[in-house]
Amino acid sequence: MVLADLGRKLTAALHSLGKARVIDEDVLNAMLKDVCAALLEADVNIVLVKRLRENVKKAIDFDEVAQGLNKRIIIQQAVFQELVKLVDPGVKPYQPKKGKPNVIMFVGLQGSGKTTTCTKLAYYYKKKNWKACLVCADTFRAGAYDQIKMNATKAGIPFYGSYTEIDPAVIAGDGVKMFTDEGFEIIIVDTSGRHKQEDSLFEEMLAVNNAVQPDNIVFVMDASIGQACEAQAKAFKDKVDVGSVVITKLDSHAKGGGALSAVAATKSPVIFIGTGEHIDNLEMFEEKAFISKLLGMGDIQGLMEKVKDLNMDEEQMMKDIQKGRFTLRNMYEQFQNIMKLGPISQVVGMIPGLSSVFGQTGGAVSDQESMKRLKKLMTIMDSMNDKELDDTDAAKTFARQPTRITRIACGSGVMEAEVLALLDQFKKFSQVVKQMGGVKELFKDEKNMKNLNPAKMGKVYQSMAKAMDPQMLRAIGGMPGIENMMKQMQQGGQLPGGMNMQGLEALMKKKKGK
User: Fold this and answer.
1) Is residue 353 a contact partner of residue 478, using CB atoms and an 8 Å limit?
2) Which of 12, 119, 415, 458 is at a distance of 20 to 30 A from 247, taking alpha carbons?
């Protein structure tokens, strides 16, 4: 999870409210002191931090708070809203239109990750079934075209460039014309960068801009410069019509909070954030979802959208669950789907509470290590035959015939203990599915969802708790946390305290109206 340290400090500050027996001004001031200290450490401008503190104090009037309203929830909501304001410029970014060419021109200083981000964005749109391509108009940096060529070839994205033409405006114009004629929808133009904001860079930018007439100019900036992002963004915006911003290297620098808030101050919307070196380490930036993940509240809605993009055979999966049927083949298919979702750290950050588990070692979960583990489990299952993969009582079959475990361990090149660990995990998952199959109301319409048998659902939650890692279960909040997370699947994001965003906003409006 990006800005993990900031997220943990802000979450700890908000959780301090839960430890207080009585919520009064002293408790509020202590909490705000911790929140402000965390923001200042993340290089957020002191003026913005001061404004946040003042706005939260204005929103909470202890003398006027209506009886019965939860002060703790009102304070949490006020802090949440002010954090969202910090990173929200109040301007809507350009939205590409399907079925027509959308020319997106990238600008920025050298070393900000501009060329890599171009490929990441093209890959992002390709995954969403857009016809995306790349044009390399960077003639200043040696190896720029080779980099685009290598990245685009690896990602399977068409590209255009030239080793002989030295005029970037000519290359950009020719490339955009060629791809427009071929019916491409997302045409990304990479331009030259410099070591500093110099006149020659701005002149070249204007020449390329006039040649391609872009629909959107994206400014790429490095998060490591923190508050200095504001001056840099303003300088570029004065020269060309910067429509949106991508902030890179947010996974590796403590000044990311300062960069995000500084860009918002320029009224330029951040559309994506770079969270790693790999091609899929690019996250769409949505203010409320970002703050929600930062505070460990997750982003269930975003997770469900990711799952929807996979185009899974949900009908067959639901039929199997309804029958309480779960095989090793089902488990294998779910592992495949997890790998398609993208970096594990992004998925983990979307599940309430889990980001804190994986962030305890001083950083985000290692995506490579997680993928390596999944691939190893899938390799073990690749050594199983069809009968074993489709056996609904596979755990019992392997227990009765241990020679199968020896054969699979030899075939997959692992220890027998690793095969046994996989079977143990499978047994726990299958118990959850069997319990879910016993709750028929789960598979009917929404009206029946409200009339779920509490006793039956309790058994489902217990099975889920047993299948989880104990540390993970504690981070989510135990059995109540599992129950809340399941409710979020229907209701959207949720804040600590068990109330969703819509409920909190309604509560605040009700308070203001009194």
Assistant:
1) no
2) 12
Rounded alpha-carbon distances, angstroms, from residue 80 to 308, 340, 392, 475, 496: 28, 31, 46, 20, 11
pLDDT band at 505 (very low <50, low <70, confident <90, very high): very low
Q: Cβ distance 328 to 426 under 8 Å?
A: yes
Q: pLDDT tens across 156-190, in order?
A: 999 999 998 889 999 999 999 999 999 999 999 99
Mean pLDDT of the residues in the chain: 76
Q: Determine contact, residues 389/328, Cβ cutoff 8 Å.
A: yes
β-bridge partners, 136 = 190
Residue 338 Cα distances to 266, 307, 346, 364, 371, angstroms: 37, 9, 11, 17, 9
Of 373, 374, 392, 376, nearest in space to 329 by CA: 392
* Whether 30 contacts 16, CB under 8 Å: yes
- Give the residue from 374, 384, 388 showing the smallest Cα distance to 340: 374
The alpha helices in 413-469, defined as continuous H runs, are 416-437, 446-449, 454-467
Containing H/E element for 217?
Answer: strand 216-222
Q: Residue 104 in contact with residue 187, Cβ under 8 Å?
A: yes
List residues bridging with 191 in a β-sheet: 137
Residues in the chain: 514
Report residue 332 as tokens: 């294998």
Q: Which residues pair with 133 in a beta bridge?
A: 187
The answer to whether 138 touches 168, Cβ cutoff 8 Å, is yes
Q: Based on the number of CB atoms within 10 Å of its own CB, is 127 exposed (0-12), middle (13-18) or buried (19 or more)?
A: middle
Picking from 216-225, 274-283, 288-297, 451-460, which range would have the lowest pLDDT averaged per residue? 451-460
Beta strands in 224-345 (DSSP E): 244-248, 270-274, 282-284
Question: For residue 474, what are its two tokens?
Answer: 């504690």
Residues 6+ apart with CB under 8 A from 232: 109, 197, 221, 225
Report percent pLDDT > 70 for the chain.
Answer: 67
**426 three-class SS:** helix
Distance of alpha carbon 458 from alpha carbon 330, whole angstroms: 24
Q: In angstroms, rounded to a whole number, what is the distance separating the alpha carbons of residues 108 and 191?
A: 8
Distances, alpha carbon 410 to alpha carbons 377, 385, 407, 416, 417, in Å: 14, 14, 5, 8, 12
